Structure formats: C-alpha cells, structure tokens
Amino acid sequence: MTDSNTVSLQYLLRTALPPETQLIAGPPDAQISWAVALRAQPPPTMNCTAAGLALVQMDLLRSFESRIGVTEVVQRLADANAAAVALRLREDVPPQALSIANQHNVALIVLPPDANMARVEREINRLIVSGAAQVTQRAIEVQRELVRAAAENREAGTLLQIIARATGKTVVVHDDAGVQTDIAQVSGQRRPAIGARGAVDSAAIESFQRWLQRESSKALHNVVSSPLGFTTTLQVEKRVAGFLSLITGVSTLDEFDRLV
Fold first, then answer.
1. 180-184 vs 229-236, strand pairing mode
2. How many other C-beta atoms are found inside a 10 Å radius of the C-beta of residue 50?
3. What are the tens digits of pLDDT across the range 60-99?
4. Which CATH superfamily is domain 7-124 in?
5. Where residue 186 falls among pLDDT bands split at 50, 70, 90?
6. Per-residue pLDDT tens over the stretch 128-148
7. Domain map of the chain by residue range?
8. Residue 230, SS3?
9. pTM of the full predicted structure?
10. Are 197 and 169 in contact (CB under 8 A)?
C-alpha cells in the first residue's frame, strides 16, 4: 500500500472495530496504513512497521511462549514502530503497558474477548484499500440524512444528533455572540451536566469566546482548530448566525469528520 492509503484510528473505531472496543492509551488520531494479526509461530513474531496496527490475541501467543506478558508485547511492538496495538485478552492491561504506549506514542486499544481477529483484520484492510472512496461515500450518506431531516422540518437537536452519532463526537452550537445554545452527544443525551463526559466546562467556554473575538473570521467557509476542538460557521442567507463545534482531544480532524 502507498502512504496515501491510510485512515485514522478514530475512523476505524467507528466503522471497522467491534462496538465494545476501547482506546486506553496513546493518540486517537493515529494514522493506520494496514492491519496484521500476529501469528503464533515459534517464537511469536512481532514484526510491524510504521503506521501498522498489530492485532494481538494473548492466548494464542502464550500457546508458544507461555510466560509472555502484555507489557512485553507492547514494548516489542513499540520497538518495531507499530502505530497501534489492539489486544484481545482475559486480564487487565498493566499500568506499565499503558506507560510504554504513551511514551512511544502508540495507540493501545482493547478488543472484546469474543472478537474474531481474522474478521477484524479483513475489515480494517478492506477499508484502508478502498480508502477515500469509502470515506466519501459514508460522508455523502450522512449528508443525505441531514438533508432529509431538514426537509421534514425536524428540530435542530435532531440534526446535531445525526452529526454526533456519525462522527462519534460531542457537537456544540453557539450563537453569533458566542453563547452556547445547544449540545448533542453520541449517547443521545442533549444537555450533559458540567463535568460529565462530553460537557463543555466554563474555562473552555471562556477560552472559546475569547477566540471568537479574535479569530472567528477564519471559520467562515472553513473548519478550523479552536479551543473546543474544531469549529465552523453556521450561515443563514449569507449571514453568520452561529458556530458549530466538534469537541475533540486531538490536533487533527480526519477527512470523514471534515466532509460531514
């Protein structure tokens, strides 16, 4: 595969990995160019390259190397320049493994115990090979859903919920004065309490309002980085009516989210 055949881990978490998969360490915006399930060959191979996602079934590895631990596996794969490691295991991930993943900037995810590793490997690589076409097609489907909802005069909260569900991110709307008017989460909870996951705390809101005073013009017809994550303008008859933001903890926005 070429370097252009990459997708973000965020996108894989939404589309190719089992729903119960959890990211527990490392960067959520890691770019993945291929996936490989580690084979139980004596000794277990830990070959990987940059931008690779290693799928690890600990029981299978231990059938050939009984004493091997999660920390050692993560260290070996970090040394082999893996971009991400997906674990299927029965025990908890030790803190040392989390530290290694964060230190080496390796995304560490835990798969559900019944995950079919061969199927996950095939699905990830299928999405990577199809690349931009798959991303664009999915974004078009979401855009059509938004158009249908708008044509049916559905309330704004419904539109926000479609975006939140598609992107896997909290969506916040501010009016043209910078006052928060609505929020939607993936779970469907419209207005989370301050401090809850997905809620926007007062410090972030104040920082965002200052940003609007200085740099809001950059968001006109663009999606730009902001104190909340990524922000664009909402326009009514060529007039800026407000701002829509995706709440993220990453420095880059993947192509799917940008298209939506």
1. unpaired
2. 11
3. 988 888 889 999 999 999 998 999 999 999 999 999 999 9
4. HprK N-terminal domain-like (3.40.1390.20)
5. confident
6. 887 667 777 778 888 888 889
7. 7-124, 155-259
8. strand
9. 0.62
10. no
Rounded CA separation 210/26 (Å): 30
DSSP letters for 175-189: ETTS-EEEEE-TTS-
Question: 236-259 as b/e, with b when 16 or more CB fall inside 10 Å?
Answer: eeeeeebbbbbbbebeebbbbbbe
Question: Quick one: pLDDT at residue 132?
Answer: 64
* Cα 217 from Cα 54, distance rounded (Å): 42
Rounded Cα–Cα distance for residues 103 and 93 (Å): 16
Q: What is the mean pLDDT of residues 156-171?
A: 88
Q: Give how far Cα 34 sits from Cα of 85, 136, 187, Å.
A: 12, 19, 30
Per-residue pLDDT averaged across 23-34, rounded? 91
pLDDT for 107 beyond 50 = yes
242 contacts: CB under 8 Å, gap ≥ 6? 173, 174, 175, 176, 181, 233, 234
**Candidates 2.40.128, 3.40.1350, 1.10.150, 3.30.450; correct CATH number of 155-259?**
3.30.450
Per DSSP, helices labelled H in 152-251 are: 156-167, 202-215
The 3-state DSSP class for residue 109 equals strand
Amino acid at the residue 148: R
